[in-house]
Every structure is written in C-alpha cells, then in structure tokens.
C-alpha cells in the first residue's frame, strides 16, 4: 500500500497521514494559492513532503483543480437567482443540461429529486436580464420555470472540509 493511502502512517508528530492530508485539503480549499512553505508550517512537514502529498492528492482526484473566486457584483452581475426547471413534455429526452450549456449566465446546474428536474443557479445584471434569461431557458430546453431571487447570501463556495 503506498503512503498516500495508509491511514496509519504517521505524519507530523505521529499524526495519522489521513489527518495530515485532510489538513492540507482544508488549507488549500480556503486558499488555493497557499505556498508549499505555508502549507508545510500548517501541517508540520517539510516543504518537499507537502509538495509530494499535494501531488498525490491531485493524482487521486481529491484535488480536481484550482480557481479564482470572482466577485459577481463587481463584475456587474448583482442579481442571483435559483431557477427550478421541469420539462413540459415528460416524454422528451432528459437533455436540459446540454441544451442550456451555452447560456453563460447559468453558473450551476443540479439534477434534483422532487417535482423539478433541475435547479439552476444564475447570475445576471438586472431583473430585465433575468426575464430575458428565463425566456431563453424555456425556449432552449422546452421547460417550465419557477424562480427564487436571492436577497442576500451569508456564505457561498464554502469548502466541504
């Protein structure tokens, strides 16, 4: 068994390797630009050991990428809404995500259980832009929509760890 998969392998100060990996994941989830030196200080390992562990976490698919988090309001997209969609014709193919992929105002698309088939998170510049987007969604995917406008968000993009 290799060291990245061995929960009994001691990390810093006898800490199990899984705990060290979890600490690295948590630190990177909060700051994807953290240096290996900063990460090494946080988990009590050498810089080269941290570099090796991060590379293994990437190879194992636990780290799937790094990205910048953008300020939607500063980008001119202050209005966030959740749009639930339901096919008009239940016999139609379940291909709404593919039909909607070209609409860049759709930030997220989630398949859900319940009355609706999908819930979309959208960001637009204004109520008029939202109305136009809803028209485009209905036309592109042959669906009905139910929209909830976000008044304020207390946290977003919170890491799961």
Automatic annotation (TrEMBL):
GO cellular component: a single term: cytosol
Keyword check for DNA-binding: yes
CDD domains (alphabetical): HTH_ARSR
One of the GO BP terms on file: response to amino acid
Keywords: DNA-binding, Transcription, Transcription regulation
Alphabetized InterPro entries for the sequence: ArsR-like_HTH (IPR011991), AsnC-type_HTH_dom (IPR000485), Dimeric_a/b-barrel (IPR011008), Tscrpt_reg_AsnC-like (IPR019888), Tscrpt_reg_AsnC/Lrp_C (IPR019887), Tscrpt_reg_HTH_AsnC-type_CS (IPR019885), WH-like_DNA-bd_sf (IPR036388), WH_DNA-bd_sf (IPR036390)
Pfam families hit by this protein: AsnC_trans_reg, HTH_24
The protein's name: Lrp/AsnC family transcriptional regulator, leucine-responsive regulatory protein
Listed SUPFAM superfamilies: Dimeric alpha+beta barrel (SSF54909), Winged helix' DNA-binding domain (SSF46785)
Domain named HTH asnC-type: residues: 19-78
GO molecular function: sequence-specific DNA binding
Keyword DNA-binding in record: yes
């Amino acid at each position: 068994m290799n060291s990245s998969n061995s929960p009994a392998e001691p990390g810093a100060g006898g800490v199990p390797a899984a705990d060290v990996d979890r600490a690295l994941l948590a630190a990177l989830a909060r700051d994807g630009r953290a240096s290996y030196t900063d990460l090494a200080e946080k988990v009590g390992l050498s810089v080269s050991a941290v570099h090796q562990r991060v590379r293994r976490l990437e190879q194992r698919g636990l780290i799937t990428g790094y990205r910048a988090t953008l300020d939607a309001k500063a980008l001119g997209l202050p209005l966030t809404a959740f749009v639930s969609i339901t096919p008009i014709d239940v016999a139609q193919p379940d291909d709404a995500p593919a039909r909607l992929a070209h609409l860049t105002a759709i930030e997220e698309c989630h398949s859900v259980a319940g009355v609706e088939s999908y819930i979309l998170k959208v960001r637009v510049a204004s109520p008029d832009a939202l109305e136009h987007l809803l028209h485009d969604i209905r036309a592109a995917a042959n669906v009905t929509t139910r929209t909830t406008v976000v008044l304020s968000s207390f946290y977003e993009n919170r890491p799961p760890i």
